[in-house]
Amino acid sequence: MRKSNFLTKTAAVAATAAALAGGAIMSTATEASATASAVVIFHKGHVICGGMLITHRQVLTAVNCVEGKEAKDLRLRLPNGVIVPVFSVVHDVSRPNGDIALLFFK
Fold this sequence. Notes:
By secondary structure, this protein is an alpha+beta fold. The chain has helices spanning 3-21, 29-35, 63-66, and strands at residues 37-43, 46-55, 58-62, 74-77, 83-91, 100-105.
């Protein structure tokens, strides 16, 4: 996939997730690439998935990464290397974009 297509799709997914969470919506692929950063997701100390930092307190990932897992057992390694606990996981598999999960941290 060409980089511009990836950024456009990333911006669209991030905008949808932010709208579902009641957050600010990023308006362009350039803005998404400037603000979204890779995050590592841990479950009970083991790496299970990656995600994208879409706001200063929200990470976008796939539902299958966190389905059946409790927020208290999840940790995130942020782009700056800091590891933080997750306090809430939100997803709605009944929606057409049902593979989107949001992880909230403090």
